Amino acid sequence: MKRSVRRLALAVSGVTAALLAAAPAATAETGYHVFDTGIGIYPRVEPSMDSAKTGIALGDGTPLDIVCQTTGTPFGGNDVFNRLADGTYLPDRHTYTGFDGFDPRLPRCQDTPAAEPVESTPASAWTPYCGKSKYVEKIEVVPWAGGHFQIVLTPTLQARSEAVGPDPHATVVEQWHAVQNCVAGLYNDLADSIWDQLECHQALSWIMWNREGSMWATGDTYELESWRPKLIRDFPRLPQYLVTECGNNLGLKPAGPFRSPIRPDLGVVDLQGAADAIA
């Protein structure tokens, strides 16, 4: 990750505060819907977040047709999973039902006929895509010592302009999904850390500031590193971004890098022995 310039902090703090505003609120608290993800969530083919994802990412507030509930691999302190009408599953942690855990209005899945099997690509056969999309030119990875790695994301010019657009959060969400489609094994604290670094880089990406051979304050690429800890969740994000310089002064830097950046879809698929645990 290229180090943010402290001199920018005061100059951009007012603008960045607006850029990091919360996403639009979810639908009214009635009916079942996706809840409290911040970035969306993919349905799973089994009641476990370690099973293969399927379909498209569902954003907060997306209405859900829940047919039954069951238990699965605990996630977020809750082992309840909700089975949708298409046979896929979402963790109760990110499903609003009005109840913490089992909803007495819903049947248990063992008493409910199963839906047709969901067609999905086996995790072991998953093929990453790290090429161009709306807000990403390409995504590459670099291995470091101790199983750590660096994700090098090259943003498009449109992404930089959207940093001061009407919905900057949506741009970060799309970039995050591009990262998920490229890099396996991003879960829990690691996923939170990569998201924090990505959001900070994207928020400052529009600032032109000649530095380290680049015309951009954040550099030509966003360098997102696995050894950085996530930020404090119950504390305003803007001060943390500025003080930590997008997380760059957090964590102990390992030895490396061990090679130049390479796209995972050109052969480097499994960064952490996690090809069977696709984000």
Overall shape: elongated
**Gyration radius over CA:** 20 Å
Count of runs of 4 or more consecutive helical residues: 5
Low-confidence stretches: 1-30, 120-124, 268-279
Order of the strands making up the biggest sheet: 2-3-4
Distance between the termini: 22 Å
Q: Overall pLDDT, averaged?
A: 78
Largest sheet: 3 strands, antiparallel
Q: What kind of oligomer do you see?
A: single chain
Q: What is the number of strand segments?
A: 10
Q: Which H/E pattern describes the elements?
A: HEEEEEEEHHHEEEH
**Fraction of residues in β-strands:** 15-25%
Strand-pairing-aware structural class: alpha+beta
Helix content: 10-25%
Keywords: Signal
InterPro entries: TAT_signal (IPR006311)
Protein name: Secreted protein
Quick tags:
18% strand; alpha+beta; three-stranded antiparallel β-sheet; 279 residues; disordered N terminus; 5 helices; disordered C terminus
Can you lay out the helices and strands and say which pair or pack?
Layout: H1 8-19, E1 33-34, E2 66-75, E3 78-84, E4 89-91, E5 95-96, E6 136-143, E7 149-155, H2 157-162, H3 168-182, H4 188-204, E8 208-211, E9 214-216, E10 222-225, H5 237-244
Antiparallel strand pairs: 1-5, 2-3, 3-4, 6-7, 7-10, 8-9
Helix pairs in contact: 1-5, 3-4
Fold and architecture overview:
- Keywords: Signal.
- The protein is of the alpha+beta class and 279 residues long.
- 21% of the residues lie in helices and 18% in strands.
- It contains 5 helices and 10 strands, in the order H-E-E-E-E-E-E-E-H-H-H-E-E-E-H.
- A 3-stranded antiparallel β-sheet has the order 2-3-4, with no helix packed on it. Strands 6-7-10 form a 3-stranded antiparallel β-sheet.
- The chain starts with 7 loop residues before the first helix and ends in a 35-residue tail after the last helix.
- Residues 1-30, 120-124 and 268-279 have low confidence and may be disordered.
